[in-house]
Automatic annotation (TrEMBL), chain A:
Membrane-spanning parts: 23-47, 265-286, 307-336, 361-382
Entry annotated with the keyword Transmembrane: yes
Lineage: Bacteria, Pseudomonadati, Pseudomonadota, Alphaproteobacteria, Hyphomicrobiales
GO MF terms, alphabetically ordered: transmembrane transporter activity
Record-given protein name: FtsX-like permease family protein
GO cellular component, one term: plasma membrane
Compartment annotation: Cell membrane
From TrEMBL, chain B:
Function: Involved in beta-(1-->2)glucan export. Transmembrane domains (TMD) form a pore in the inner membrane and the ATP-binding domain (NBD) is responsible for energy generation.
Sorted UniProt keywords: ATP-binding, Cell inner membrane, Cell membrane, Membrane, Nucleotide-binding, Translocase, Transport
Domain ABC transporter, chain residue ranges per copy: 9-231
Short name of any one Pfam family annotated for the protein: ABC_tran
Protein known as: ABC transporter ATP-binding protein
Cellular compartments per GO CC: membrane protein complex; plasma membrane
SUPFAM superfamilies: P-loop containing nucleoside triphosphate hydrolases (SSF52540)
Gene Ontology molecular function: ATP binding; ATP hydrolysis activity; transmembrane transporter activity
Amino acid sequence: MRSIFLQILAVTTINLKSLPQRLWLSLATVIAVGLVVTVLLAFLAMANGFQRTIADSGAEDIAVALRSGSLSEINSVVLRDQVRLIEDGPGIARGADGKPQTSGELYLTVDGTKRSTGTKASLPLRGLGPQGPALRRGVVITAGRMFNPGTNEIIVGKALGKEFEGFDLGQTVTFNSTRWTVVGIFAADGSVFESEIWADLPVLQSLFKRVGAVQTVRARLINPAAIEALRAYSDSDPRLKLDVMSEAAYFAQQASNTSDLIQKLGWPLAIAMAFGSLAGALNTMYSSVAARATEIATLRAIGFSGFSTFVGTLVESLILAAVGGVIGAAATYLVFDGFTASTIGGSFSQVVFNFQLSPRLIGQGLLLALVVGLFGGLFPALRAARMPIVAGLYGS
Amino acid sequence: MSSPNSPMVGIVDLCKRYTKGKETITIFNGLNLAIPRGDFVAMMGPSGSGKTTLLNLLGGIDRSDTGEIEVASERLDRLSESELSRWRASHIGFIFQFYNLMPMLTAAQNVELPLLLTRLGRKERRQRVETALGVVGLADRVKHYPKEMSGGQQQRVAIARAIVSDPALLLCDEPTGDLDRDTADEILSILQVLNRDLGKTIVMVTHDPAAARYAKRSLHLDKGNFIEKELAA
Ligand SMILES: Nc1ncnc2c1ncn2[C@@H]1O[C@H](COP(=O)(O)OP(=O)(O)OP(=O)(O)O)[C@@H](O)[C@H]1O
Ligand SMILES: [Mg+2]
């Protein structure tokens, strides 16, 4: 047993000490693997940073209720009676007037035109009650005023107004053949709400034929822990077939769609590149075996086992790949960690976020590197172990 | 296992062929050979007569097709590859024409390689390496790398490597083929000492009649058969 270990150690030492003779080829493999890991980690760090940023922008003491199983607002329906039941639910904060701090909301889409490209895109149009703005962090009117209840007035999030035509203060726009006037511009602490248009709920309900129904209910909790009580209340009442979660949890869930998408782009790209670097690793390791043929054969003649030459070759490959992986991870960390990005598509069009690496992601990158090293070394190592000794000694 | 009194090498009716594509070259067809323990044999013969092939068969790094081959009391034709590996480690020392040292290892590290296959601890290994390098007169070159040494010195390191684990049989393929006369004589004297004083059995392939005179006898291989000539000591 100890002899096997000593053999492997000796063969590996000899391999690694002869690396300088194959410096450029080995370096090329290291760099190729490093690039694969950099690309993978850049994508994973982007997805991770995006998701964390979105999740962080949600509040823990705001509850969001949607119809059970409707993964996003657009698919949800909450009926008037259900809204009332939520308002009477446990853990809901009440204002100075004693009214529950809740907001039933509609979430519709309307067409808009991008300023930069002139292309059409759907924009979120939200109908909310008088308490709606207060149930979101940092909502302030930066220009103009709040819409008046019962009128065709809208206020526009500043990110949306910047990106789409026709939403300047005082302009009128047409949705669903009705005309609306922009009476205010609002900010919302940089959150996704800045990419929305807001209008009075009852007006939207009647003009869009949704009388008596909303899509979500938003409520302030007396404290973050109260979400449990509210969820238990909703689950136990058969009239309330609702999913109740904190705004932070809801955002994290929404972000996971996009971050999954980023990962689904990143992995195939990295794996395709990994195949390229695998070809390089195979080439490097086959030439390593060829260059060491006499040495391998000499060791075998002395009595070294085929297994030790197998493992020695494999370890060389794994070490090259691991070095590449570490360099790739370091490069990602230096270049991308904290790198700021924005404008990802979907409902989070204006989110500004940082790339964020984590030990788990780095582990994934290194794992991919080692897989490349493993397969890049396997067949050359088999060749090293199976090479006839006589052929290696006399170079036939 | 045979008794320790059995000859070092016993070959009976050995056949060895190489097939290259559709061509089959017969190297040996019914070869017989006995080499007693403690012998020092010079093996001569024209190029291509099968000297190296025979040495490889004796050392268990090549396989015969049919026939018996017993070396150091072991029937090599009955051993598996891994058994052969282990057998080589304890019974055979190879000495090659071009030394076959590991260029990235020092003299001492090169000589230590066969000891990594034993149960010896680090300290014992170092002692054995020093002893072996002392035997070949290179005690002061322990930390030198092959490229810092002359051909003769490198071959002496190779001899130290071949004897360090105390094998009974040394197989030398043209050990002086790449050396000048004086250096060759030094190397051959060392082999002679190993045979005479340490009792090593030596089979040495050589083209050089002067080198063959260091052996106890020579065998002439021609077309796969031996013509034996006793030499005056
Ligand atoms: N691996 C091999 N495959 C095919 N033929 C081989 C192989 N090894 C040796 N031979 C052939 O076997 C014959 C004997 O070769 P060998 O090397 O034993 O000769 P030798 O007596 O050592 O010659 P030299 O004096 O030139 O070293 C030669 O004809 C050679 O071409
Ligand atoms: Mg030869």
